Amino acid sequence: MSSGLKIVEEQQKPIEKLQIYPTANSGVSPFWREKYDKDAKKYWDRFYRHHGDRFFKDRHYLDKEWNSYFSVSESSKVILEVGCGAGNTVFPLIATYPHIFVYACDFSTRAVDLVKAHNEYTEKRVCAFACDLTGDGLDNHISPSSVDIVTMIFVLSAVSPEKMPFVLQNIKKVLKPNGCILFRDYAVGDLAQKRFSGKNQNISENFYVRGDGTRAFYFSNEFLETLFSEQGFEVEELDVCCKQVENRSRELVMNRRWLQATFRQSNGSKNPSDRMTPAKLDQSERQNSIQSKSEELKLKEVVDNTDIDISDGLAMEMFGASPSSHEMNVFKLKDSSFNIKLLSKEYQHTCKSTGLMLWESARLMASVLDRNPNIVSGKRVLELGCGCTGICSMVAARSANLVVATDADTKALTLLTENITMNLQSPLLGKLKTGVLEWGNKEHIEDIKGLACGGFEVIIGTDITYVAEAIIPLFETAKELILQKKGDSEVQEKPALILCHVFRRVDEPSLLSAAAKFGFKLVDRWAVNSRDSPIGNVIDRWFSDKDLVAEIPSSALHILYFQME
Which residues, including other chains, have CB under 8 Å from residue 390's CB and lie 6 or more apart? Predict the structure, then answer.
């Protein structure tokens, strides 16, 4: 009795609007933190494969900022550029100072290849090699205590804070006793950091992951000075630099902040135990910090004329406004193909919207509809959670009388409209409609119902069953929109709800239980390479084409076929 009462209450209780994605800024999960660290090289390789040498500006300001260090009248000077990238520091240096030799290293092999492919690369002046500074010994490539100057330009920020001491110790192995490090990197308070603060991309304090998987740390004066002093370096110069970057075409004004510093190996007179950690900073040091801020304000007017390394492209990407965050994919069917615009793979792992991607279940269901047009032929079809690709809806439009593709994500629907326009022409364009549909939203449901003159004969959903809290609203919405039986139900084919998915956080018994509460009966089920519990012969007929079986994108896919009781 109590269970039956509970079902009635759930059916009558108004369905609340769901926030499928968390609103709290919970940051990056431990799993992803480890993955970003372990796969850092892969993400930077992908970065340079995508951008080549077009992303960063050549650093022609080096002679203005540090000329006194490079122009000392010696017969030769040895430079080490760590995190050389595509050579934006290396080649301006060798063009300006003919007496220097530059070692250039990066842990991205693609970046090193770009340096070696540069038309100014010559082994007489440059030696480029791949090296992970957090694990590989620099002294395997460079003689110990042989380097005069190390340049670290926007590189240390890409390293996990806990690994930064290892990088500095690695550099000390090859740096001469009185050698120096020229440093420039992101500062706390930079606009890019402020933009990160509103997203779930925080790895640890002041450490973030970008949309492409690369990482960025934002340094404070205190952190940087303590880090270097604990590793045996003395500060010769440390400034906070500010610059206002304007992109007139996008009407954006970006306040950029970075630290510029010079460090030199100390003479060893200091006792390491006397070096201060951030937790040991006393009141006098805090007062110095306050004074440095006032000095920073005085400095701003000067550095506003200073060149900045970061290209407009990087600034746009870091601020989430990059035009390159999407890519074109070709989805092939037996006798046709679709050009689909969707979120680029580099950005999918930090994107909260699952609707901006192409899922395997959608690929399978689109192939099924392509080979079996009778499933939707002459019928009114609704797709729930269609996302930006809409491939199932576009395929269904070929034979259905009407297709309505719906999603609650307006960004996905905007991109969907582009994909439909790119791939369909009249009269198919006239048969495919799009609409906003948040499950359980009565206003949205009525708007969609009005397009179908009473209801839909086929409702399709691909990978829309992964959030437990959304299952009840899903079936409640499907019940409202499916065509109700009229007249002789034995003569007319019953309307159907078809779900194709990979089971994730919601198992099959939970789905079936929720479906039954709203009058849906499981008529058939199908899984790859499985004949367990056959209850119908509807879906097996769809796979009579052996070529279709061979094209199944995942062995974990399932299809559930429901009809109303």
Answer: 383, 405, 416, 419, 420, 432, 434
SS3 of 296-331: HHHHHHHHCCCCCCCCHHHHHHHCCCCCCCEEEEEE
Q: Which of 136-140, 166-170, 270-274, 471-475 has the lowest mean pLDDT?
A: 270-274
Find out whether 483 and 451 touch, Cβ atoms under 8 Å: no
Angle (CA) 33 240 289, round 5°: 90
In 3-state terms, what secondary structure has residue 28?
coil
Radius of gyration of the chain (CA): 30
Give the integer Cα–Cα distance in Å for 309 and 56: 6
Task: Give the position of tokens 């075409």.
Answer: 249
- Cα separation of 564 and 85, whole Å? 60
Give the sheet arrangement for strand 207-209, strand by strand.
202-204, 207-209, 215-217
pTM exceeding the 0.70 threshold for the entire prediction:
no
> How far is residue 263's CA from residue 270's CA, in Å, rounded to a whole number?
15
Strand stretches in 425-548, DSSP E: 432-436, 458-462, 496-502, 520-527
Alpha-carbon span 236 to 222, nearest angstrom? 14
Rounded CA gap, 309 and 152, in Å?
13
pLDDT tens, position by position, 293-343 = 444 433 433 344 455 555 434 444 444 444 456 778 888 888 889 998 887
Confidence of residue 521 (pLDDT cuts 50, 70, 90): very high
- How confident is the model over 352-403, as pLDDT tens digits? 567 777 888 999 999 999 999 999 999 999 999 999 999 999 999 999 999 9
Q: Alpha-carbon distance 133 to 316, whole Å?
A: 28
Give the residue from 552, 136, 140, 560 showing the smallest Cα distance to 364.
Answer: 552
Which residues in 419-430 are b (16+ Cβ under 10 Å) and which e? Answer: bbeebbeeeeee
Strands 100-106 and 77-82 come out as: parallel
DSSP H or E segment with residue 403: strand 402-407
The C-alpha atoms of residue 330 and residue 336 are separated, in whole angstroms, by: 10
- Contact present, 474 and 464 (Cβ < 8 Å): yes
Structure tokens at 170: 């690695």
Q: Determine how many CB atoms are found less than 10 A away from the CB of residue 510.
A: 14
For helices 283-303 and 221-230, give the axis angle rounded to 10 degrees. Answer: 110
List of residues 6+ apart from 561 with CB closer than 8 A: 496, 497, 498, 522, 523, 524, 525, 526, 536, 538, 539
Phi-psi bin for 87: left (phi > 0), alpha (psi -120 to 50), beta?
left
Preceding amide of 278 cis, omega within 30: no
Q: Say what the pLDDT of residue 22 is.
A: 41
Q: List CB contacts of 108: < 8 A, sequence separation 6 or more.
A: 41, 44, 45, 47, 48, 85, 130
